Amino acid sequence: MLKIDQLELGPIQTNCYIISDNQKNCLIFDPGEESAKIKALVKKKSLTPLAILLTHAHFDHIGAVDDIREYYSVPVYLHHLEKDWLSRPNLNGSGKYAEVPDYRIKDADVLLTDQKTLQIDSFEMDLFHTPGHSPGSVSYSFGKEGFAIVGDTIFRGSIGRTDLIEGSEKKLLQSIQESLLTLSEHMILYPGHGPETTPAQEKKSNPFLVGL
């Protein structure tokens, strides 16, 4: 059975998830900032990181990528449609805000394309390309474990913003309807910000999704 640890990192309180197995190997999802907090949790729990997986390449999800990658010597996974975003502030959004430094992160080591599944050691995931918030947004579903990491595609009672580069509300709603809402109604969805939710809860009360 997998274990999930959540850290809220950086000025926008981005959720970083550390998923670990019984052998104490782990995957790190969206290390947005504050790498010291990630390292402290990994050390406290005696975990061995195997990879960094990104739901997308907006600045608030990538700030600690290089430090964590180099410290643990692990690869970074990202959808190929955002392969240039890590190093370009105008794409990853950091160039949009004067109070935010320009984020220039090294290239991803593994680019996801049309894969439907991904296995890293004992970790088995179903991959859903869920564009709309960004063109290369990916949701990682651990179906046997009953949860999914969904980035900024959906939140409890809301959806991801679509006013950034290559955002599209039409595509986002389509992604949610065709991918996330087709999951088990009680699947736990862990978003990029805020508390977890489920497809059942969002079908019932999310004002953007009622009637889909």
TrEMBL record:
<dbReference type="InterPro" id="IPR001279">
    <property type="entry name" value="Metallo-B-lactamas"/>
</dbReference>
<dbReference type="GO" id="GO:0016787">
    <property type="term" value="F:hydrolase activity"/>
</dbReference>
<feature type="domain" description="Metallo-beta-lactamase">
    <location>
        <begin position="13"/>
        <end position="193"/>
    </location>
</feature>
<dbReference type="InterPro" id="IPR036866">
    <property type="entry name" value="RibonucZ/Hydroxyglut_hydro"/>
</dbReference>
<dbReference type="GO" id="GO:0046872">
    <property type="term" value="F:metal ion binding"/>
</dbReference>
<dbReference type="InterPro" id="IPR051453">
    <property type="entry name" value="MBL_Glyoxalase_II"/>
</dbReference>
<keyword id="KW-0862">Zinc</keyword>
<protein>
    <recommendedName>
        <fullName>Metallo-beta-lactamase domain-containing protein</fullName>
    </recommendedName>
</protein>
<dbReference type="Pfam" id="PF00753">
    <property type="entry name" value="Lactamase_B"/>
</dbReference>
<keyword id="KW-0378">Hydrolase</keyword>
<keyword id="KW-0479">Metal-binding</keyword>
